[in-house]
Design brief:
The chain is α+β, with helices and mostly antiparallel strands and 98 residues long. It is built from two helices and four strands, in the order H-E-E-E-H-E. The protein is rod-shaped.
Length: 98
């Protein structure tokens, strides 16, 4: 009888180890998320000759800073939201919402 109880205990332990090993096989490490944001801003006015297509407000959440991001077809401009010219440049542009 002693052998039978030891064999059952060993079988249960092996089965439990298999369950834990199988569960770990499905675990995936989190994917890295790249930070794509304005880390600094400019107070400089964007020239009227540059055609803007939209803008969005970015909240400060380190390493990102408080900014208004203006978009053209190919690039973006990180601007200081407190600059005096911002409101005029936003007029008529579509606000981009994530």
């Amino acid at each position: 009888m002693a052998w039978t109880s030891r064999l059952i205990t060993i079988a249960v332990l092996i089965a439990l180890m298999g369950c834990f090993t199988g569960a770990q096989g499905n675990y995936r490490r989190p994917t890295r998320v790249g930070v794509n944001c304005c880390k600094e801003v400019s107070k400089g006015r964007i020239p009227a000759s540059i055609k803007l297509v939209g803008y969005k407000h970015q909240n400060a959440l380190s390493p990102c800073v408080d900014a208004v991001i203006f978009y053209t077809e190919k690039e973006k401009f990180c601007s200081d939201p407190n600059a005096l010219w911002i409101k005029n440049r936003q007029k008529g542009l579509k606000e981009i919402v994530d």
